[in-house]
Design goal:
275 residues, alpha+beta, GMP Synthetase, Chain A, domain 3, 2 domains, 23% strand
Length: 275
Amino acid sequence: MPNQKPTPNQKPITNPELVEALKALHQENTPQNQGKVLGLVVERAVFLTPAVVTPAPQQPGQADSARKQATIQFQLITTKDGRPFFPAFTDAEELRKFAGQKPVQSVVLRFDDYVSLIQRNEKACGFVVNPLGLSLTLDRKTVESLAAKKKEVAQLRQQRQQQAAYSQETIEKDAQVMVGDPDEVPQAMLDAVVQMAQGREDIRTLWLRQMIRPDGTPSLIIVVDHTGAQAEVFEAVAEAARPHFGRLPVDMIPYGTSFAEAATEGVEPFFRREG
Protein backbone atom coordinates (compact mmCIF):
# COMPACT_ATOMS: atom_id res chain seq x y z
CA MET A 1 0.00 0.00 0.00
CA PRO A 2 1.13 3.57 -0.48
CA ASN A 3 2.94 5.26 2.37
CA GLN A 4 0.22 7.84 2.55
CA LYS A 5 -3.09 6.04 2.73
CA PRO A 6 -5.12 7.08 -0.33
CA THR A 7 -8.65 8.28 0.23
CA PRO A 8 -11.45 8.88 -2.24
CA ASN A 9 -11.10 12.28 -3.82
CA GLN A 10 -13.34 14.78 -2.03
CA LYS A 11 -12.06 18.16 -3.24
CA PRO A 12 -10.73 19.52 -6.51
CA ILE A 13 -7.13 18.65 -7.19
CA THR A 14 -5.12 21.12 -9.23
CA ASN A 15 -1.41 21.49 -9.87
CA PRO A 16 -1.11 24.80 -11.75
CA GLU A 17 2.61 25.20 -11.13
CA LEU A 18 3.35 21.71 -12.42
CA VAL A 19 1.07 22.20 -15.44
CA GLU A 20 2.96 25.36 -16.38
CA ALA A 21 6.29 23.63 -15.82
CA LEU A 22 5.22 20.76 -18.11
CA LYS A 23 4.26 23.28 -20.80
CA ALA A 24 7.68 24.89 -20.53
CA LEU A 25 9.38 21.49 -20.67
CA HIS A 26 7.51 20.48 -23.82
CA GLN A 27 8.38 23.82 -25.41
CA GLU A 28 12.03 23.65 -24.44
CA ASN A 29 13.56 20.44 -23.08
CA THR A 30 16.37 21.94 -21.02
CA PRO A 31 18.03 20.62 -17.85
CA GLN A 32 16.58 23.58 -15.96
CA ASN A 33 13.02 22.81 -17.09
CA GLN A 34 13.53 19.11 -16.40
CA GLY A 35 14.77 19.85 -12.90
CA LYS A 36 11.80 22.08 -12.10
CA VAL A 37 9.28 19.49 -13.28
CA LEU A 38 10.94 16.64 -11.40
CA GLY A 39 11.23 18.75 -8.26
CA LEU A 40 7.51 19.51 -8.32
CA VAL A 41 6.58 15.90 -9.04
CA VAL A 42 8.73 14.53 -6.22
CA GLU A 43 8.14 17.14 -3.54
CA ARG A 44 4.85 18.93 -4.07
CA ALA A 45 2.47 17.49 -6.66
CA VAL A 46 -0.78 15.76 -5.69
CA PHE A 47 -2.26 13.49 -8.37
CA LEU A 48 -5.55 11.85 -9.21
CA THR A 49 -5.42 8.21 -10.23
CA PRO A 50 -8.36 5.98 -11.23
CA ALA A 51 -9.06 3.18 -8.79
CA VAL A 52 -11.84 0.88 -7.69
CA VAL A 53 -12.47 1.41 -3.99
CA THR A 54 -14.40 -1.39 -2.30
CA PRO A 55 -15.40 -0.76 1.34
CA ALA A 56 -14.72 -3.67 3.65
CA PRO A 57 -17.90 -5.46 4.77
CA GLN A 58 -18.86 -4.90 8.36
CA GLN A 59 -19.59 -8.00 10.38
CA PRO A 60 -22.65 -8.06 12.66
CA GLY A 61 -21.81 -6.55 16.02
CA GLN A 62 -18.43 -5.30 14.78
CA ALA A 63 -17.46 -1.80 15.91
CA ASP A 64 -16.43 0.74 13.27
CA SER A 65 -12.95 0.91 14.80
CA ALA A 66 -12.49 -2.82 14.18
CA ARG A 67 -13.59 -2.64 10.58
CA LYS A 68 -10.96 -3.63 8.04
CA GLN A 69 -9.61 -1.16 5.51
CA ALA A 70 -11.22 -0.76 2.13
CA THR A 71 -9.77 -2.64 -0.83
CA ILE A 72 -8.28 -0.41 -3.51
CA GLN A 73 -7.51 -1.71 -7.00
CA PHE A 74 -5.31 0.60 -9.05
CA GLN A 75 -5.51 0.74 -12.81
CA LEU A 76 -2.59 0.38 -15.18
CA ILE A 77 -2.43 1.83 -18.67
CA THR A 78 -0.44 0.34 -21.53
CA THR A 79 1.86 2.36 -23.76
CA LYS A 80 2.15 1.85 -27.50
CA ASP A 81 5.05 -0.51 -26.97
CA GLY A 82 2.98 -2.65 -24.56
CA ARG A 83 4.50 -1.54 -21.25
CA PRO A 84 2.15 -1.01 -18.24
CA PHE A 85 2.33 2.21 -16.24
CA PHE A 86 0.31 3.74 -13.43
CA PRO A 87 -1.42 6.93 -14.61
CA ALA A 88 -1.15 10.20 -12.66
CA PHE A 89 -3.42 13.12 -13.51
CA THR A 90 -2.77 16.69 -12.43
CA ASP A 91 -6.47 17.63 -12.33
CA ALA A 92 -10.01 16.50 -13.14
CA GLU A 93 -9.78 17.80 -16.71
CA GLU A 94 -6.84 15.53 -17.48
CA LEU A 95 -8.64 12.63 -15.80
CA ARG A 96 -11.72 13.21 -18.01
CA LYS A 97 -9.53 12.92 -21.11
CA PHE A 98 -8.86 9.37 -19.96
CA ALA A 99 -12.27 8.40 -18.54
CA GLY A 100 -14.56 10.40 -20.79
CA GLN A 101 -17.92 11.42 -19.38
CA LYS A 102 -18.57 8.18 -17.53
CA PRO A 103 -18.24 8.32 -13.71
CA VAL A 104 -14.90 7.12 -12.45
CA GLN A 105 -13.59 6.58 -8.95
CA SER A 106 -10.26 8.16 -8.17
CA VAL A 107 -7.92 8.50 -5.22
CA VAL A 108 -5.28 11.07 -4.38
CA LEU A 109 -1.64 9.99 -4.50
CA ARG A 110 1.74 11.64 -4.14
CA PHE A 111 5.13 10.63 -5.47
CA ASP A 112 5.93 8.42 -2.46
CA ASP A 113 2.68 6.53 -3.01
CA TYR A 114 3.63 5.74 -6.60
CA VAL A 115 7.02 4.55 -5.40
CA SER A 116 5.27 2.07 -3.08
CA LEU A 117 2.87 0.91 -5.79
CA ILE A 118 5.69 0.29 -8.24
CA GLN A 119 7.73 -1.58 -5.64
CA ARG A 120 4.75 -3.85 -4.91
CA ASN A 121 3.87 -4.50 -8.55
CA GLU A 122 6.64 -6.19 -10.52
CA LYS A 123 4.76 -5.71 -13.80
CA ALA A 124 4.50 -1.93 -13.50
CA CYS A 125 7.18 -0.12 -15.49
CA GLY A 126 6.69 3.22 -13.71
CA PHE A 127 4.10 5.97 -13.82
CA VAL A 128 3.14 8.61 -16.36
CA VAL A 129 1.80 12.08 -15.63
CA ASN A 130 -1.07 13.25 -17.86
CA PRO A 131 -0.74 10.43 -20.42
CA LEU A 132 -3.23 12.08 -22.81
CA GLY A 133 -1.88 15.60 -22.43
CA LEU A 134 1.52 17.21 -21.95
CA SER A 135 2.86 14.03 -20.46
CA LEU A 136 5.86 13.02 -18.42
CA THR A 137 6.88 9.35 -18.30
CA LEU A 138 8.95 8.13 -15.37
CA ASP A 139 10.14 4.57 -15.76
CA ARG A 140 10.94 2.27 -12.85
CA LYS A 141 14.66 3.03 -12.85
CA THR A 142 14.05 6.79 -12.83
CA VAL A 143 11.47 6.52 -10.05
CA GLU A 144 13.84 4.46 -7.91
CA SER A 145 16.64 6.95 -8.53
CA LEU A 146 14.44 9.92 -7.62
CA ALA A 147 13.19 8.15 -4.50
CA ALA A 148 16.73 7.39 -3.36
CA LYS A 149 17.78 10.98 -3.99
CA LYS A 150 14.78 12.32 -2.08
CA LYS A 151 15.61 10.11 0.89
CA GLU A 152 19.25 11.19 0.81
CA VAL A 153 18.33 14.89 0.64
CA ALA A 154 15.84 14.49 3.51
CA GLN A 155 18.48 12.83 5.68
CA LEU A 156 21.04 15.54 4.92
CA ARG A 157 18.46 18.26 5.61
CA GLN A 158 17.58 16.67 8.93
CA GLN A 159 21.24 16.38 9.90
CA ARG A 160 21.88 20.02 9.02
CA GLN A 161 18.82 21.18 10.94
CA GLN A 162 19.88 19.22 13.97
CA GLN A 163 23.44 20.50 13.78
CA ALA A 164 22.30 24.08 13.26
CA ALA A 165 19.50 23.93 15.78
CA TYR A 166 21.39 22.93 18.89
CA SER A 167 24.89 22.35 20.09
CA GLN A 168 26.82 21.85 23.27
CA GLU A 169 28.16 25.33 23.86
CA THR A 170 31.61 26.07 25.27
CA ILE A 171 32.11 29.61 26.55
CA GLU A 172 35.66 30.85 26.69
CA LYS A 173 36.72 32.37 29.99
CA ASP A 174 37.16 35.91 28.66
CA ALA A 175 34.47 35.78 25.98
CA GLN A 176 32.49 39.02 25.79
CA VAL A 177 28.90 37.89 25.48
CA MET A 178 25.61 39.29 26.71
CA VAL A 179 23.10 37.07 28.48
CA GLY A 180 19.54 38.02 29.35
CA ASP A 181 15.90 37.06 29.15
CA PRO A 182 14.70 35.62 25.82
CA ASP A 183 12.93 38.02 23.47
CA GLU A 184 10.37 35.28 22.83
CA VAL A 185 9.78 32.32 25.12
CA PRO A 186 9.29 29.09 23.11
CA GLN A 187 6.69 27.69 25.48
CA ALA A 188 5.96 24.57 23.46
CA MET A 189 9.64 23.66 23.54
CA LEU A 190 9.88 24.27 27.29
CA ASP A 191 6.76 22.17 27.96
CA ALA A 192 8.24 19.28 25.95
CA VAL A 193 11.57 19.49 27.78
CA VAL A 194 9.84 19.66 31.18
CA GLN A 195 7.76 16.59 30.36
CA MET A 196 10.92 14.71 29.44
CA ALA A 197 12.86 15.94 32.50
CA GLN A 198 10.12 14.82 34.88
CA GLY A 199 10.87 11.25 33.86
CA ARG A 200 14.62 11.48 34.46
CA GLU A 201 16.16 11.46 37.92
CA ASP A 202 19.47 12.79 36.60
CA ILE A 203 18.09 16.22 35.58
CA ARG A 204 17.78 18.56 38.53
CA THR A 205 17.30 22.09 37.20
CA LEU A 206 16.90 23.78 33.82
CA TRP A 207 17.11 27.46 32.91
CA LEU A 208 16.42 29.24 29.63
CA ARG A 209 18.51 32.27 28.71
CA GLN A 210 19.32 34.21 25.56
CA MET A 211 22.93 34.91 24.58
CA ILE A 212 24.20 37.53 22.17
CA ARG A 213 27.74 37.11 20.89
CA PRO A 214 30.11 40.01 20.15
CA ASP A 215 29.14 39.83 16.47
CA GLY A 216 25.48 40.31 17.39
CA THR A 217 24.42 36.71 16.72
CA PRO A 218 21.68 35.63 19.15
CA SER A 219 20.94 32.13 20.38
CA LEU A 220 18.98 30.51 23.17
CA ILE A 221 20.79 28.72 25.97
CA ILE A 222 19.45 25.89 28.09
CA VAL A 223 21.56 25.65 31.24
CA VAL A 224 21.42 22.09 32.52
CA ASP A 225 22.10 21.08 36.13
CA HIS A 226 22.37 17.30 36.04
CA THR A 227 23.99 14.29 37.69
CA GLY A 228 24.06 11.88 34.74
CA ALA A 229 26.39 11.43 31.78
CA GLN A 230 26.46 14.83 30.12
CA ALA A 231 26.31 13.62 26.51
CA GLU A 232 23.31 11.43 27.28
CA VAL A 233 21.48 14.15 29.21
CA PHE A 234 22.12 16.79 26.56
CA GLU A 235 20.89 14.46 23.83
CA ALA A 236 17.70 13.77 25.80
CA VAL A 237 17.06 17.50 26.19
CA ALA A 238 17.77 18.11 22.50
CA GLU A 239 15.53 15.23 21.42
CA ALA A 240 12.61 16.65 23.40
CA ALA A 241 13.20 20.21 22.20
CA ARG A 242 13.94 19.42 18.54
CA PRO A 243 10.35 19.33 17.18
CA HIS A 244 9.76 22.80 18.63
CA PHE A 245 12.88 24.70 17.58
CA GLY A 246 12.07 28.21 16.43
CA ARG A 247 14.02 30.83 14.54
CA LEU A 248 16.95 30.88 16.99
CA PRO A 249 19.50 28.09 17.43
CA VAL A 250 19.52 26.42 20.83
CA ASP A 251 22.77 25.80 22.72
CA MET A 252 23.22 23.85 25.93
CA ILE A 253 25.75 24.41 28.67
CA PRO A 254 26.24 22.53 31.94
CA TYR A 255 25.61 24.20 35.26
CA GLY A 256 28.66 24.50 37.48
CA THR A 257 30.84 26.82 35.42
CA SER A 258 31.31 30.45 36.39
CA PHE A 259 29.57 31.53 33.19
CA ALA A 260 26.55 29.31 33.81
CA GLU A 261 26.28 30.45 37.43
CA ALA A 262 26.42 34.09 36.39
CA ALA A 263 23.89 33.54 33.61
CA THR A 264 21.38 31.95 35.99
CA GLU A 265 21.93 34.12 39.07
CA GLY A 266 18.58 35.36 40.33
CA VAL A 267 16.77 33.70 37.42
CA GLU A 268 13.78 31.41 37.98
CA PRO A 269 14.35 28.02 36.30
CA PHE A 270 11.69 26.60 34.03
CA PHE A 271 12.20 23.20 35.65
CA ARG A 272 13.32 22.23 39.13
CA ARG A 273 13.13 18.75 40.57
CA GLU A 274 11.40 18.75 43.92
CA GLY A 275 12.81 16.81 46.81
